[in-house]
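Intended use. Records like the one below are meant for learning the mapping from a protein sequence to its folded structure. Do not use them to infer anything beyond what is encoded.
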Amino acid sequence: MSAARIIPTVPLTGDAFVPFGTVLSAGMGRSSLVNDGRGIRYDAEHGLGFAGEPLPPVLALYRIRPSQLPFAVTAMEQHPLSSQTFVPMTGGRFLVVAALANDGGEPDPETARAFIAGPDQAITYAGGVWHCPLVALDETADFAMMMWRAPDPDADCRVVSLSVPLLVADHAAAI
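Structure written out for the chain above:
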């Protein structure tokens, strides 16, 4: 295995994440008063995408033990048919690592980016975007995951081992 490719982290922002999907947080999108004026509802400006006829949506819960930076990404996953949304329910910051597909459909390390998300940010990976599995940073964290169920689940979940790992380093330590 070759030496790891070092990727510094940057804060997660909607603009920086555009090539890979959407960032969601309270205060974004259309809003309306709800619950007799005790709350504000924010409607996301995107939906969950699926290429083809999906089965009912999946709502799954994950509990992720914390990891530390630097973090070695040795495998990535892709959902070629579905977008996939992760919403933090507990915990602190989490790591988001994403890459676009190369001409052969595999993760393109040249496009890989690493983001630090706050506990008040949710993300939606666009269909076909390669990403690292969930990584909690500060403490054990719970997440809700939403996506469409594919008629053939194996056709909508690809996992590849990286021949050259991506080493995600804290931005301050990488400069």
